[in-house]
């Protein structure tokens, strides 16, 4: 039994890591003005943040079922089954698209997995699945393991500027104005597959401190993977990583970013921290 691993572009797994673990990527799209881009293929995160300085708020779109069918048909030439790992079904139809496409392709069995999260925490699932494939596990054996990992997986995001949430229809104008005046930094997380407020905190410094408290409570000295995620704030993210590595020697930290699709909704300057227990 030969098993392929697929994830979508919002996992933001670096290309060299995808190649190392034979992870196939299907891109979501970003519409900037009259131009349509496949994120991570035709538009990098840095290019995206530069573009939006002079353009209106972009819109985003999930991969078409046709794109999924095309990918699965190609994979069927060399694989018997595929585990397709995607961002939360509460914020995108990508997961459902994988299910629908899987039903349309002969010669390969598709197992779709809803991470109920996004960004590099989603990537953790794809990498772990790829490692399990190399260890000789089948999709039927891997899927329950991914479900178990959900119990140890969390992600929190601090939004620096409320305007994108407001412009994208996720926050009323009045709330945005009041929030800006009070310097409120909404701490967000995934709950029941949706991005919802966790706490409202007055300053960025306090918000980041609160995320660290949540990390400490969740990991409790055990061995974890953790990722610092930033929206065009690489130096700040590197500094935070260095501080956290000193405090949490039991945790393996990495750096990642909010790419074009997720960055469209959170806005530049956002910071996040996600983690998952090591098996």
Q: What's this, in brief?
A:
This protein has 279 residues and is an alpha/beta fold.
Count of discrete alpha- or pi-helical segments spanning 4 or more residues: 11
- Largest sheet: number of strands, sense, barrel closure: 6 strands, mixed
Strand portion, in percent? 25-35%
Give the ordered list of helices and strands.
EHEEEHEHEHEHHEHHEEHEHEHE
Low-confidence stretches: none
Q: How does the helix and strand content classify structurally?
A: alpha/beta
Structure write-up:
The chain is 41% helix and 27% strand. It is built from eleven helices and 13 strands. The protein has helices at residues 15-20, 45-51, 65-75, 94-104, 119-134, 139-149, 163-167, 173-181, 204-219, 234-247, 260-266; strands at residues 3-8, 23-26, 29-32, 35-38, 59-61, 81-86, 109-114, 154-158, 185-191, 194-201, 224-230, 251-257, 271-277. The strands form three sheets. Strands 10-9-8-13-11-12 form a six-stranded mixed β-sheet, sandwiched between helices. Strands 2-1-6-7 form a four-stranded parallel β-sheet, with helices on both faces. Helix 4 (94-104) links the parallel strand 6 (81-86) and strand 7. Helix 3 (65-75) crosses helix 4 (94-104).
Describe the protein's topology.
Blueprint: E1 3-8, H1 15-20, E2 23-26, E3 29-32, E4 35-38, H2 45-51, E5 59-61, H3 65-75, E6 81-86, H4 94-104, E7 109-114, H5 119-134, H6 139-149, E8 154-158, H7 163-167, H8 173-181, E9 185-191, E10 194-201, H9 204-219, E11 224-230, H10 234-247, E12 251-257, H11 260-266, E13 271-277
InterPro entries: DegV, DegV_C, DegV_domain_contain
GO molecular function: lipid binding
Pfam family, one: DegV
């Amino acid at each position: 039994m030969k098993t392929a691993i697929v994830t979508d572009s919002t996992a933001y797994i670096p290309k060299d890591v995808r190649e190392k673990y034979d992870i196939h990527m299907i891109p979501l799209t970003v519409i900037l003005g009259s131009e349509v881009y496949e994120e991570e293929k035709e538009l990098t995160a840095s290019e995206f943040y530069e573009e939006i300085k002079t353009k209106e708020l972009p819109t985003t779109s999930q991969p078409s079922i046709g794109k999924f069918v095309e990918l699965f048909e190609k994979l069927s030439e060399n694989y018997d089954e595929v585990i397709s790992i995607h961002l939360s079904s509460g914020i995108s139809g990508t997961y459902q698209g994988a299910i629908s496409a899987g039903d349309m392709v002969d010669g390969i069995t598709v197992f779709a997995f809803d991470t109920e999260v996004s960004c590099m925490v989603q990537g953790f699932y794809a990498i772990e699945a790829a490692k399990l494939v190399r260890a000789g596990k089948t999709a039927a054996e891997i899927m329950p393991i991914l479900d178990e990992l959900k119990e140890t997986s969390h992600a929190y995001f601090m939004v620096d500027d409320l305007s994108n949430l407001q412009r994208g229809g996720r926050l009323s104008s009045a709330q945005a104005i009041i929030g800006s005046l009070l310097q409120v930094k909404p701490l967000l997380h995934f709950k029941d597959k949706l991005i919802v407020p966790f706490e409202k905190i007055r300053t960025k410094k306090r918000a980041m401190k609160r995320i660290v408290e949540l990390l400490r409570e969740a990991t409790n000295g055990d061995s974890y993977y953790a990722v610092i995620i930033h929206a065009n704030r690489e130096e700040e993210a590197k500094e935070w990583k260095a501080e956290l590595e000193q405090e949490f020697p039991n945790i393996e930290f990495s750096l990642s970013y909010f790419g074009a699709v997720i960055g469209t909704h959170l806005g530049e300057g956002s910071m996040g921290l996600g983690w998952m227990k090591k098996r």
